[in-house]
């Protein structure tokens, strides 16, 4: 250590004892994602103008990143010297590291520059957050002495971004990549083409820039809103090849691999709008103005394959990634079924049907990319009709695709809608920004285990990791996108980096509350739901109670039962609240001075089935199991738009029988049911249901009216103890609809008995 520093510390020990004791106080690091092993020491190290840095040339990128971080964020400039050392250690895993901070200095050991870079990301979280935005003004940076030994759980740790529906600036893409790298994520999946826009310059096909990159107008509001309204404004743009190169190099310097996605054979309407000969009808179409799945699909002929090979040739020059994403999802087969060429090709190649034709298409494109030294990755629909020989599957429709692929020896990236779709709502607050639907709160993301339980230990080795997806139909601005991404991205970073045995949601919430300061300094518009309240109606020996809880420590919950807003003077919640009649509970989290977060409101409809016994002959899908069967008669209705919240139960392709035992005979005047009917998400209300009261049967027919919710009240007017509801699944989704050919989901909410 330099003489200047020794003298400074000696003077500090003599004249500022109390201050020194405070400065060396052991403070538990608040690091995200959670490291593998952390050992704290009762000392600290100070970085100041006398501090020197040295590094092995193999670790130069990470060392210079740290130097630039300190010098651009503080008045301090590092010199050459051994106070901060980057050392090569070939015994460590490629992305692993050992970070040691002692009173003598800082040492980072890694076998690769990437591992050392992740050590730097940990080290920056031990420093004051004001360094992040250049407002740190002191002449030294005090860092807690600690040893961190760390390495990732999964090799693929990714985030996705759709720029086809809405486009974002080059600077914002860089900011997004910065966030990924700070959280030790290593893959950026860039969704560049879709029905609503083509966003990458392809020089051989200028109409992709002139026509495909722009749509005449854009849908306003939600797709479910009828009639559809449009803004009347031309929208679009594209990234030039120079901009793409700039972004790829920027990501490379942060050890983030950029995987481009060029959709095929479906989601091709924008391309076909420019070059109609690529489709099956050779008729002109327009770039899509609204969301959803469209019939236009690449025709599997030589002209199309030549076009795609030319496109990929230019893409390969821009992206050095091992993988090229070819999409493969939501490819309607109507055009192929009515196409003379396609039907002739099916016969010529001895294919079974149009699904096998899609496999033929993807296999052909895989062979081309393999010949260029690359591999394909695609959404799990590429399994249909047989998986291309070397393909990696990105499993989004649950985990079944992942299980099938892994059991057949193919690599898998997990990204199921239930846990990884960050375009879903994350709060039950009705004031939340517009989203596509669904409900994916932070805790559910954090609780995700990328290894499906159906896989053996050997098969689980094919699971490379997981990825968060952000589709931007309803995300037009950068601030809105940040709100959807954060803090769920932080939760996912811990899912893919940290060992399962170390994870604890309550501890994560504590660290996240601290991390908010860093997000503030980075000007990231995160969603703050830490001060929200969760509530549950519980039954105990025939009596009903309402339970409130919040995860943040050192706060109190105050509530009212008369519908008035809670204040600092309202009653403090200390134990579960007895419920004997319909009530409206309002509650909020408070510190000693004021309310934190939004007011929680819950209306409880204390109907005749609340607290009764209920059974369902099928288990709800594990991704949408809500509060269990009891949640269907707990007096609480789910959200109108968030079909995945805890009050909704989801069943995939199954008929269900629900039985309710009221405990004794009661006069039942009406029974009310509510089903979600979000067909854009493959969710269909049943066509009919049957209600059985003791021996009496009542049949009710529904109509597919397209409403997002199908709510119906049935007049019963009879005395009964037992209620049965027979609910058939809608069946197979018809052609022309999103998810055509797949089983429909049934989502059911509160059954109200009056």
Strand order of the largest sheet: 8-9-16-17-18-19-20-21
Largest sheet: 8 strands, parallel, barrel
Which parts are unreliable, with pLDDT below 50 for 5 consecutive residues or more?
1-24
Over the alpha carbons, how many angstroms does the gyration radius reach? 29 Å
Number of helices: 18
The counted number of beta strands is: 36
What is the terminal separation in angstroms? 79 Å
Q: What portion of residues belong to β-strands?
A: 25-35%
Residue-averaged pLDDT: 92
Shape: globular
The level of helicity is: 10-25%
Structural category? alpha/beta
How would you describe this protein?
There is one protein chain. Helix content is 24%, strand content 27%. The protein is of the alpha/beta class and 754 residues long. The protein folds into four domains: 3-150, Chitobiase/beta-hexosaminidase domain 2-like (Chitobiase, domain 2); 157-521, Alpha-Beta Barrel (TIM Barrel), CATH 3.20.20.80; 534-604, Immunoglobulin-like, CATH 2.60.40; 613-753, Jelly Rolls, CATH 2.60.120.260. Helix 13 (400-407) links the parallel strand 19 (392-395) and strand 20 (412-414). The longest helix has 18 residues, at 354-371.
What is the secondary structure topology, with strand pairs?
Blueprint: H1 3-15, H2 17-23, E1 37-47, E2 52-55, H3 60-73, E3 79-80, E4 84-88, E5 97-102, E6 105-110, H4 113-124, E7 141-150, E8 156-162, H5 170-182, E9 187-191, E10 193-194, E11 197-198, H6 207-212, E12 214-215, E13 219-220, E14 229-230, E15 235-236, H7 241-252, E16 257-264, H8 269-274, H9 302-318, E17 323-327, H10 334-337, H11 340-348, H12 354-371, E18 375-379, E19 392-395, H13 400-407, E20 412-414, H14 417-420, H15 442-446, E21 463-468, H16 478-485, H17 488-497, H18 505-521, E22 534-540, E23 543-549, E24 556-560, E25 571-572, E26 577-579, E27 583-590, E28 595-604, E29 613-616, E30 649-652, E31 656-676, E32 688-693, E33 696-701, E34 709-727, E35 745-748, E36 752-753
Parallel strand pairs: 2-3, 2-4, 4-6, 8-9, 8-21, 9-16, 16-17, 17-18, 18-19, 19-20, 20-21
Antiparallel strand pairs: 1-7, 5-6, 5-7, 10-11, 12-15, 13-14, 22-23, 23-26, 24-25, 24-27, 27-28, 29-31, 30-35, 31-34, 31-36, 32-33, 32-34
Helix pairs in contact: 3-4, 5-7
């Amino acid at each position: 250590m330099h003489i200047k520093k020794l003298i400074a510390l000696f003077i500090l020990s003599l004249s500022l004892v109390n201050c020194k004791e405070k400065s060396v106080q052991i403070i538990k690091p608040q690091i995200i994602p959670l490291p593998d092993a952390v050992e704290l020491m009762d000392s600290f190290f100070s970085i100041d103008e006398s501090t020197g840095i040295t590094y092995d040339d193999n670790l130069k990128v990470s060392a210079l990143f740290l130097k630039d971080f300190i010098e651009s964020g503080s008045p301090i400039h590092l010199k050459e010297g051994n106070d901060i050392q980057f050392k090569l250690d070939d015994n460590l895993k490629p992305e692993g590291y050992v970070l040691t901070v002692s009173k003598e200095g800082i040492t980072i050991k890694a076998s690769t520059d990437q591992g050392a870079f992740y050590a730097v990301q940990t080290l920056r979280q031990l420093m004051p957050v004001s360094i992040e935005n250049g407002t740190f003004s002191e002449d030294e940076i005090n860092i807690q002495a600690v040893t961190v030994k760390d390495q990732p759980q999964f090799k693929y740790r990714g985030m996705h971004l759709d720029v086809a529906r809405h486009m974002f600036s080059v600077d914002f893409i860089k900011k997004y990549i910065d966030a990924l790298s700070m959280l030790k994520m290593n893959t950026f999946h860039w969704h560049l083409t879709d029905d609503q826009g083509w966003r990458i310059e392809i020089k051989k096909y200028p109409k992709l820039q002139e026509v495909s990159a722009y749509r005449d107008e854009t849908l306003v509001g939600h797709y479910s809103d009828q009639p559809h309204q449009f803004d009347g404004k031309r929208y679009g743009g594209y990234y030039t090849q120079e901009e793409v190169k700039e972004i790829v190099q920027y990501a490379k310097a942060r050890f983030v691999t950029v995987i481009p996605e060029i959709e095929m054979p479906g989601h091709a309407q924008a391309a076909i709008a420019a070059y109609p000969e690529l489709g099956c009808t050779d008729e002109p179409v327009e770039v899509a103005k609204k969301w959803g799945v469209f019939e236009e699909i690449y025709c599997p002929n030589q002209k199309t394959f030549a076009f795609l090979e030319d496109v990929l040739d230019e893409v390969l020059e821009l992206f050095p990634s091992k993988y090229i994403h070819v999409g493969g999802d939501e490819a309607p087969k109507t055009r192929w079924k009515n196409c003379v060429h396609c039907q002739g090709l099916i016969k010529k190649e001895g294919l079974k049907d149009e699904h096998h034709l899609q496999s033929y298409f993807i296999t052909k494109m895989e062979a081309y990319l393999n010949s260029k030294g690359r591999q394909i990755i695609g959404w799990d629909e590429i399994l249909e009709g047989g998986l291309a020989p070397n393909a990696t599957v990105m499993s989004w429709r649950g985990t079944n695709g992942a299980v099938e692929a892994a059991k057949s020896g193919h690599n898998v990236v997990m990204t199921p809608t239930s846990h990884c779709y960050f375009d879903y709502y994350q709060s039950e607050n009705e004031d939340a920004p517009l989203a596509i639907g669904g409900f994916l709160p932070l805790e559910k993301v954090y609780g995700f285990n990328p290894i499906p339980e159906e896989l053996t230990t050997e098969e689980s080795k094919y699971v490379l990791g997981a990825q968060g997806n952000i589709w931007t139909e309803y995300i037009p601005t950068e601030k809105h996108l940040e709100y959807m991404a954060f803090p769920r991205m932080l939760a996912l970073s811990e899912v893919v980096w940290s060992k399962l045995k170390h994870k604890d949601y309550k501890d994560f919430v504590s660290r996240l509350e601290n991390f908010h300061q860093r997000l503030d300094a980075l000007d990231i518009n995160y969603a703050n739901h830490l001060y929200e309240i969760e509530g549950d109606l519980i039954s105990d020996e025939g009596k009903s109670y309402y339970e409130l809880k919040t995860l943040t420590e050192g706060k109190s919950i105050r509530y009212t039962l008369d519908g008035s807003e809670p204040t600092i003077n309202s009653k403090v919640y200390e134990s579960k609240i007895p419920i004997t009649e319909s009530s409206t509970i309002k509650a909020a989290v408070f510190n000693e001075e004021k309310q934190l977060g939004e007011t929680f409101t819950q209306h409880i409809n204390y109907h005749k089935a609340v607290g009764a016994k209920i059974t369902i002959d099928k288990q709800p899908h594990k991704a949408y199991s809500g509060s269990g069967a009891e949640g269907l008669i707990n007096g609480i209705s789910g959200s109108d738009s968030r079909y995945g919240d805890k009050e909704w139960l989801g069943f995939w392709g199954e008929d269900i029988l629900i039985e309710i035992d009221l405990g004794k005979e009661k006069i039942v005047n009406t029974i009310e049911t509510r089903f979600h009917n979000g067909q854009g998400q493959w969710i269909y209300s049943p066509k009919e249901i049957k209600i059985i009261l003791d021996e009496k049967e009542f049949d009710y027919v529904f109509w597919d009216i397209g409403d997002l919710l199908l709510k119906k009240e049935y007049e019963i007017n009879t005395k009964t103890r037992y209620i049965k509801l027979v609910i058939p699944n809608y069946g197979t989704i018809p052609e022309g609809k999103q998810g055509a050919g797949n089983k429909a989901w049934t989502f059911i909410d509160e059954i109200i008995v009056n």
